Amino acid sequence: MFRSLGSIVALLVIAATPVTAQTLPCAAREQVLQFVIDQRSEVRLARGTASRGATLDLFAADSGTWSLVLHLPDGRSCLLANGDNFEATQGLQPARGNPA
Description:
With 100 residues, the protein is an alpha+beta fold. It has one domain (8-83). 19% of the residues lie in helices and 30% in strands. It is built from two helices and five strands. It has helices at residues 8-15, 29-39; strands at 26-28, 43-49, 55-60, 66-71, 76-83. A hairpin with a 5-residue loop joins β3 (55-60) and β4.
C-alpha cells in the first residue's frame, strides 16, 4: 500500500478534523504509542521537528488507518488527528494544483 510519503500535508488538511487545544487528547508518550502502534498496528512513516523541542510523527497501517502525533519535550504526546483511507502518493506533491 505504501509507495512514498508525498502529499501527507494535503491529506491531513482534507481529512483531519480540527481539534482545539482544550480537547487535545494528550497522555504519557508510551500510552499514546500503545494506542497507535499496538491497537491500530501503525508504523511511523515520517517525522518532523516542531517548535520548542517537539516532534511530529505520522503513523499509518496497511489497513489504511493513520495517526498524527505531537511529542512534547515534557514526555507527553498528543493525538492531533487520526482517520482511515490513508494512501501514500508517488513522491512529494505540490501544495497547489492537481497532484499526479
